Fold this protein.
Amino acid sequence: MTLAQWMPFIVLVPMITSGLVALLPGRNLPWLMTFLAATASTGLSLWVLFGIDAEPLRYAFGNWPPPIGIEYRVDAANAWVAFIVSGIAMAALLWGRVSVHQEIPERQNIFYALFLLALAGLLGITLTGDAFNVFVFLEISSLSTYALIAFGHDRRGLLAAFRYLIMGTIGATFILIGIGFLYMMTGTLNMADLAERIPAVADTNAVRAGFAFIIVGLGLKLALLPLHLWLPNAYAFAPNVITVFLAGTATKVALYVMLRFIYTVFGGDYSFGAVPLATLLMILAIAGMVVGSWVAMFEPNLKRLLAYSSVAQVGYLVLGVSLVSLIGLTATFVHLFNHALMKAALFMALGTVMYRTGSARIEAFYGVGRQMPWTMTAFALAGLSLIGVPTTAGFISKWYLILAAMEAGLAWLVVLILITSFMAVYYIWRVIEAAWFKPAQTDAQGATKVFREAPLALLIPLWIMVALNFYFGLETSLSLGAAEQAAQALLGAFK
Amino acid sequence: MMDVVLSYFNYWVVILLMMIGFYGVIAHGNMDKKLMALGLFQTSVFILFISAGKVIGGATPVIRDGVSVFSNPLPHVLILTAIVVGVATTAVGLALAVRINEAYGTIEDDLIGDPSHEPEEP
Amino acid sequence: MSFIPTLSPLTVVVIPFVGALAIALAHQHPKLRDGLGWLASIAFFIAVAGHIGPTLSGQGATQTLSELLPGVSIAFAVEPLGLLFALIGASLWLVATLYAQSYMKSLNYPHLARFFACYAIALGAAAGIAFSENLLTLFIFYEILTLSTYPLVTHSGSEEARRGGRIYLFYLLASSIGLLLPAIIWVYAATGTLDFQSGGILGDHIAPHWIPVLVGLFAFGIGKAALMPMHKWLPAAMVAPAPVSALLHAVAVVKAGVFTILKVAIFVFGIDVLLATGAGVWVAWVAAFTIVSASLVALRLDDLKARLAYSTVAQLSYVIVGAMIATPLAAIGAVMQLAMHAVAKITLFFSAGAIQVASGRKKIKEFDGLGRVMPYTFTFMTIGILSIIGLPLFGGMWAKWYLLMGSLSAEQWIVAGALMLSSLLNILYLLIIPIRGFFAPAADGVPTEGLHEAPMAQRVAMGITATACVVLFFFPEPLFELAKGLVS
């Protein structure tokens, strides 16, 4: 079999395994199968990532040639995103086994089946070359995500899931409307085919409306301010392993689809020329950066704090897009990866503390630094990456973003990026100060609560993630190289 | 003027349904009503697709003698998928509503408030 | 010095880090911990000294670790200026180890393993700064230096120490991330490289009218150089134990700041460019202002360490003046000031700590008559002060001399006036201390009976650095040659 024939298995393996996992008994077997499936996807996507050259890999399902059949079409951009998504899933699972035992003592097989379904959905969105197929996979991943968020024992998760369901469905329906408009105007759903036919009808209100619906719908999935309201609670009250997984993947995939529509389907000239998208995105991105960081500075629930930080980080990602340059897009793609690394590490660290303390409130972290030094040191180091300290992955992202802003001649934007970085210093520092400088909590009798250091099963994956944050801050050839290729693949598509 | 109204008849229906649905989702605090409105909202999009597939004067898309103009079957197929998705969404939503009712004793959104303000459970 | 092996620059930088790890692991065995402290500082000194031969013969070692960004690597290159900085750090670390081990035990400080580990890391970071081949590598070690010295500043753990630590961290991080980093990125965006090259790298890449702005970003962004208004962290850092103030806030940290300024002036802008465009002159004026106003502030302070801190602020600006006026004479003066001030100021901080150990006193008004009880300490202090004032027989004179000549030859009258005024003020606010100590009768309520000299180890440490002040007056040639080589 050729690489192009192996490529669909990135999606098929988790999808098929999910049905199998639902039938497996016990707790360890479902986890093992899930982990193996995620590993297989990661391996395959890594293989694809390295095997890809100038021509995209194509696979037509059922031997129906496109545009009639559904086609998977993979270039450097999707391969990179698929690798990030499956890799983060693998890391989350590696860390999550023990955490899931605590948070979801029963029906773990269903939980893992849903996890795989969500993963398959996200990977499907990433790989497919068919606009309607995007919608279907989006709903597959979304529906399983709603269920996963509600799976924990925290009843607030139910509310967060329900509200996410309402907003997510509206967003997905918007995308469907947009796709409908495009189909009416062009008679095709294949992205490459759409790209060829849209220019002829570009100057119609229907296409413009379709464009707007798709961007708004994806903006909702992406949690771009002001469409971010579902995200903080969804992240905060989901089981920790799900938070780790979602923080590294869900918004990333939505951003990728948005880029795919902007550059491949509509073409950069249309998106940034006929429509003032760049200005709009820049305003929203900046609003996201500032508002997200601002709220995070005062948020007492640390999972929500990091969730708002994610809103800010989405701002960074979109900012790179809005600069409409190779460097800007490279910044976005490299931050896609780096942000997944840092947020996964941070949420893992939080989850590891919660494994012992059971609460994400900042008061619950008082004195934890002395009681769980390994966990909190990991948190502090991952925090450095979030801030963008040199030698961490976060620094590379910031560097490219600032470089792109400078290239565009926007000095005030550089200042703004730095200001939001300082805000990140502040909110990370709050956690550090609580953990190390505040006296430990006391119980009702006034005795100091004692928490043991977390088990190695949690610490080792956490520290691997932290180490990766530093590895990719020092050895950037893989991340930067792939990001630049991804950016070029997208830009090349519109030239 | 009348022409415009009549010749875009299907679109007017779509817009009307969509707005009713959208309004319902936003305005209603009751979760069941929210889900119904959401269903209405989705249905409007289904109609949009299906009505676009109709070719005036076209027959059902089954190849047979003497018929050369067919309606487009593809939107129907797409919407079949979308309907399945919609049903699944409603099912998940209702399941969540049941669980919320168990946990909070109500499904009125306004009575529950912001979960982030809820005190920590012991 | 061919009998000393020349280790790779990375190995040199890593030695203190390994030492720190070993010290931290030995936290339950005080003897072993102290032994490791000695081992690390001696090994580090030998390793740095091993680079003298090759570097002076023009074959400084280079080493590239990994390419971080296109055209920017983490890389080391040993050149004379960096070697000078590393040598100052390494040799004074030896003396400081002698002093610090005695001092910290005299005052019963806890957590000594953490203290000495962070101390070692700071020295390793300073070596990293010294050997950096490009701005980014330098920036990384610059930040490591900031972070590793934070626990030292807050070592006592008191509320005051933590407040001082917050100011310390805020000023240094805010200036470096807010100003220095954008300056570095600007250079990179304009030139595509960050390598230090003699003659500078800017060329025509940046329009002349922007160069003064860039100079300003660097000068204020390098907060460790304590140019006003970025100087606040230095007095705040005085809550740290005396050995920290002595080695780090008189030598490693602040010298890292002015060293970076020199490095940027010589290898990024190019001395000739700065001289030709006059882009740095406005910063030189700010530095002149800093010199005078810091001296005036120091006059009014009664706490010895606080007064020394403001004296340091003033003395650092001498280097900035030299680098920014950029005439050859001024630049030579700047390089010499780097070394001379380090040796003199560490002596003063040692003596401040020694007085505290022996008498528990920190306020200058309580020092009356103390000099007769602690003759060694006060004598060494006097030598340090005379060197800082810049009188003949003491090394500091050479630096002051060249700086003054340089500013006169550039016809910078304001700057030259500030330099001379500062020397006068030095007499008023520094020399007055030993004068009162030796000649004033003991003040009411602070009798000197029952007090005695500081421990032997501390006296020896002070004696060594004080002697160095004198020796440097008679043998300044190596320094001078090195500085000349850099400038021409």
In short: Residues 287-495 of chain A form one domain.
